What we know:
Blueprint: H1 5-16, H2 24-33, H3 36-43, E1 54-64, E2 71-80, E3 85-91, H4 100-116, H5 119-130, H6 135-144, H7 149-152, E4 157-164, H8 166-169, E5 177-181, H9 194-201
Parallel strand pairs: 3-4, 4-5
Antiparallel strand pairs: 1-2, 2-3
Amino acid sequence: MDKTFIETYTETLLEYFSIPKIQIERALSPYLSLFIDQLFQKVFENDEHYSGHLKTILPEFPLKKELNNQSNNIDWLIYNHDKETIYLVELKTESSSFTPGQLERYKELKVNIKKHGAAFLFDDLIKIGTNSKKSYKYKFIQNKIKDWYEVVSKVYNCEIIYLVPSKLADTLNQPEVQIVPFRDIPQIIQTPYTSEWRYLRVL
């Protein structure tokens, strides 16, 4: 029997894990984005602090740098409707890709959200887009998430979540961060794409 596209795709990703310089996270993120809300809902279903109905606001959400109008991107910006909390979610597929400096920026962002609210995340998009050569892409983002502005403007709670290889999770000691090791990725989640999830899960 011929392999399906998804079988071939996941097998290719597995092979790419062994090739230096290939950025697996970029290939994996769009695929994982289709399941990310359900994944964390299942992981946190019995966690009093993190459980709730989750909805991705935007993948690759641009975060304005402090000193200029350039940006770094968080892998997913997710909203917990039940807890009225923003989740900053970062994916790492290699232990070597973890950088303390990046995490410190997220911690500073968390403090700013708790102090000022999260509306500035959307306001910063305008500043970034105005000064970008690809301003049309930022206008697309702004239009795509415009219905979120009123919700996010009332948010003062923020949590940082790292989805990382199990080996890396065992070495990280970050009490302010929710570390989710790959070994905790559920085998079954609520999704209409069970076959696709099954293949993704083995990665």
